[in-house]
Write a structure and sequence with these properties.
- The protein has 359 residues and is of the alpha+beta class.
- It has 2 domains: 227 residues, Neutral Protease, domain 2, CATH 1.10.390; 93 residues, Immunoglobulin-like (Sandwich).
- Helix content is 26%, strand content 18%.
- The protein has 7 helices and 14 strands.
- The strands form 5 sheets. Strands 7-14-13-10 form a 4-stranded mixed beta sheet, with no helix packed on it. It has a 3-stranded mixed beta sheet with strand order 1-3-2, covered by helices on one side. A 3-stranded antiparallel beta sheet has the order 8-12-11, with no helix packed on it.
- α1 crosses α2 and α2 packs across α3.
- The chain is elongated and about 100 Å long.
- The structure holds zinc ion (ZN).
C-alpha cells in the first residue's frame, strides 16, 4: 500500500481523491487486521464535479462488476461520505471474494436503507451498509461526513432501529437492507439491548461472507452461520431484534410423562425437563420452563433450580391433576401437559426374605 507524503492545500480540486483513498485504506486495514484475510484490491473512480459516470445509465455512486469493471464510482456529491465510499467498497470486496454482483436485479438499482426489496438485493446492500459502520466506527450510516449527522447530511442510526419501528415507514424482514445491516451489526457489537445478547465481533461474520459457499441472501448466511458451529441462541436473538424471524420454537420431545405418587410421599426430580425438551437454536441450558396451569394446586408440583419437576402433594390428599409446562427459547414457547396421580398405599407388602445357603 502506498504512503502519502504530500500536503494538499485546502480548496485543492484533488482533495476528494485523498479522502476516498483514505476511506479505501481504512476499509482494507480494518478487514485485514480483524480477519487476517486480504480482501483484495479496489479500483475507485471519481472526477471533480461529476455526479454521473459517462455511459452509465444512472447517476450516483455505484459498483460495477461487469463490462469495464470491476470498479467503484464515487459521485462527487458523496465523496464527503466515508460511509458511501466504504459501502461501494463492500460491494467490491464481496465481488472479489465471490464474483457475485446483482447486475440483473433491476429492482435493486433504486433502493434505500428501509425500502422493501427482494432478499438478494437486501443481502447485497445490507452487507454493504454494515461494513462502513464497523470500518468507520459509529452506528450511523451517514450520507454526509458524519458521524451521525455531524457536519450536516442525512443519516440513519441502524443500531437504534428495532421491532418498535413499524411498516410502512420501516418494513420488516430479510428483504429490507437496513434490517439485514442492523442484524449484522447486532451480531458484531458488544453493546446489547432488548433481545440482542450477541457479541461475536467482525471475523465470525466476515469468514462466512468471504468463504464458500457464496451466500446470495441473508437466510443463506444464517444457514452458513448454523453450520459454522457458532452459538445460535444469541445469534437468532440478535437477528430477531432486527425484525427478521429465523427462530424455530422449542418443542417437547418426547412428551412429558405422567407420574404416579403414593399418598403421603413426594418425588424429588420426578421429571428432568432437559430430557423432554429440544430446540433448533438453543441448547437445554438456554431454555426456560414455567408452570402455566395446574388443575389442582394440592398436587404440589414445582420446577426447581436445576430444571427438574418436583412433586410433593399436600399431606393426606388423594386425586389427580393436570399440569401444563411452558418451554421458552426466549422468543417462542411450547406447552405440554402431563398428569399427576396421587394414589393410596393399598397395603404394605413385606416380601419374605429368602436366604439361600450355598452348600
Ligand atoms: Zn450498494
Amino acid at each position: 500500500m502506498a504512503e502519502f507524503n504530500y500536503g494538499v492545500p485546502a480548496g485543492d480540486n484533488w482533495l476528494p481523491a485523498m479522502w476516498i483513498f483514505q476511506d479505501l485504506r481504512r476499509a482494507w486495514e480494518y478487514i485485514r487486521n480483524a480477519t487476517g484475510v486480504d480482501p483484495g484490491s479496489v479500483t475507485a473512480k471519481w472526477e471533480n464535479g461529476q455526479n454521473c459516470y459517462p455511459s452509465w445509465p444512472f447517476c450516483g455512486s455505484y459498483f460495477n462488476g461487469g463490462v469495464g469493471g470491476p470498479y467503484i464510482f464515487i459521485a462527487h456529491n458523496s465523496a464527503i461520505s466515508g460511509d458511501t465510499v466504504v459501502h461501494e467498497t463492500g460491494h467490491h470486496y464481496m465481488w472479489n471474494a465471490t464474483g457475485w454482483w446483482l447486475w440483473w436485479d433491476v429492482g435493486c438499482y433504486n433502493h434505500s436503507l428501509f425500502s422493501q426489496e427482494d432478499v438478494n438485493c437486501a443481502w447485497s446492500e445490507g452487507w454493504a451498509d454494515f461494513l462502513p459502520l464497523v470500518v468507520n466506527g459509529d452506528t450511523c450510516y451517514d450520507f454526509g461526513r458524519g458521524p451521525c449527522g455531524a457536519g450536516g447530511g442525512a443519516f440513519e442510526n441502524l443500531e437504534t432501529r428495532d421491532r418498535d419501528d413499524l411498516p410502512p415507514l420501516f418494513p420488516w424482514g430479510d428483504a429490507v437492507e437496513g434490517r439485514v445491516a442492523g442484524a449484522l451489526y447486532d451480531l458484531f457489537d458488544s453493546a446489547n439491548e432488548d433481545f440482542d445478547s450477541a457479541t461475536f465481533g467482525f471475523a465470525s461474520i466476515a469468514s462466512i461472507v468471504f468463504q464458500a459457499p457464496h451466500e446470495d441472501r441473508f437466510s443463506a448466511f444464517w444457514n452458513s452461520w448454523k453450520a459454522s458451529g457458532q452459538n445460535k441462541h444469541h445469534a437468532v436473538r440478535a437477528i430477531w431484534q432486527n425484525t427478521i424471524d429465523y427462530d424455530t420454537p422449542p418443542r417437547f420431545e418426547p412428551p412429558l410423562p405422567d407420574r404416579t405418587v403414593l399418598q403421603g410421599f413426594g418425588w424429588e426430580n420426578a421429571i428432568d425437563l432437559w430430557a423432554y425438551s429440544t430446540d433448533e437454536e438453543s441448547s437445554d441450558w438456554e431454555l426456560d420452563w414455567q408452570i402455566v396451569y395446574t388443575s389442582d394446586w394440592r398436587c404440589g408440583v414445582t420446577i426447581d433450580a436445576g430444571d427438574y419437576v418436583d412433586i410433593y402433594p399436600q399431606a393426606g390428599w388423594l386425586g389427580s391433576c393436570d399440569v401444563t409446562i411452558r418451554a421458552s427459547d426466549s422468543l417462542k414457547t411450547a406447552d405440554d401437559t402431563f398428569r399427576v396421580n396421587v394414589v393410596p398405599v393399598r397395603a404394605r407388602v413385606f416380601l419374605p426374605l429368602v436366604l439361600k445357603n450355598n452348600p
